[in-house]
């Protein structure tokens, strides 16, 4: 997610990818370092050392319409051979069970046991499963994708009205504006915070207010759509928590209650086509430091998951009627290491733009992350110390690029810095 000290590069050395904008500053991005999982990443402020005042004609400016047709892709987007997607990567599909949430919620005989068994199977292996019959209206999903497409199709100056600022986790970011690193991901994102209304009075309509305050009244419709979408995702994540709790033998309420006042992030990902998709990545390999990710892909493939046993990348094919769910590091800690948070990435392709909608469930910042006592015993001692989500977030933003060892590195860090929970 974050790296200790992102390499800073003078803007003057970065090539122009398209003619410099004349009407806006393109250099004030606080985009995350390239391999940040896009979960919540305000980058270290040092990575955004340029300010809008340093905008110049030598700024790196992305224009998807130009870049997506260009055969000669700029060096910053070329990944080292060992990380670039091999031609055969993703040819095989990942085995992701489909959990029938409707049947589970209806209390149909056997449905809870079946859902719990499928989830346990997936989470002990790679942490990815799908939910179907989830109750999120198809109309809402279609509108959420339509609004994302409309937002990313607007001219760059318009999108940059929502530019993510240094230290913020919300806003518009493209790897292409104001990045000072190599291995840039081939994408644009828009992120905003969500917390359910009953978590804090001030959280009422947080998403709608974000759009109105940042982009103005023309964005009221899109704000309402994502407000409704995030409410649906928060509800869905609590239902999934019931299944996860059952699957771990701690009952349906334990994790549901833990996340009732969640403080989550929604991210819209847009990956333009790329003429050399074998050289670059839409989202670099990462594990999510958050608790649970609920992803909806449009009809273009791109999500790949790394299976460590055979060292392969496997595709999770898009399914219009399903959400892809994956375990993040925080839930791995809540399960005392039983469930896996797994490396994944997004590849791009030559022909079609791709979109995905990612909801990152996170606990309240001050919640103590600790597994239930039933998951700890002599044979299963505590895998990680107590911590708050705020501390893990700080670690992955400022000190460490999220990978398969994040929790181990974080455990050492909190012990050595006294950032743990007393
Ligand atoms: O777009 C995708 O399929 C994956 C996105 C992702 O991993 C992320 O946003 O963290």
Automatic annotation (TrEMBL):
Domain Fe2OG dioxygenase, first and last residues per copy: 261-363
Pfam families named among the record's database cross-references: 2OG-FeII_Oxy (PF03171), DIOX_N (PF14226)
Sections of the chain in a coiled coil: none
Alphabetized PROSITE patterns for the sequence: FE2OG_OXY (PS51471)
Low complexity bias locations: 23-33, 46-56
InterPro entries tied to this protein: DIOX_N, IPNS-like_FE2OG_OXY, IPNS-like_sf, Iron_ascorbate_oxido_reductase, Oxoglu/Fe-dep_dioxygenase_dom
GO molecular function, one term: oxidoreductase activity
BP terms from Gene Ontology: gibberellin metabolic process
UniProt cofactor(s): L-ascorbate
Keywords associated with the record: Iron, Metal-binding, Oxidoreductase
Domain of life: Eukaryota
Ranges where the record places region Disordered: 1-56
Catalytic reactions on record: gibberellin A12 + 2 2-oxoglutarate + 3 O2 + H(+) = gibberellin A9 + 2 succinate + 3 CO2 + 2 H2O; gibberellin A53 + 2 2-oxoglutarate + 3 O2 + H(+) = gibberellin A20 + 2 succinate + 3 CO2 + 2 H2O
Record flagged with keyword Iron: yes
Segments of skewed composition (Pro residues): 34-45
Family membership: Belongs to the iron/ascorbate-dependent oxidoreductase family.
Protein name: Gibberellin 20 oxidase 1-D-like
Organism: Ananas comosus
Gene name for this UniProt entry: LOC109715051
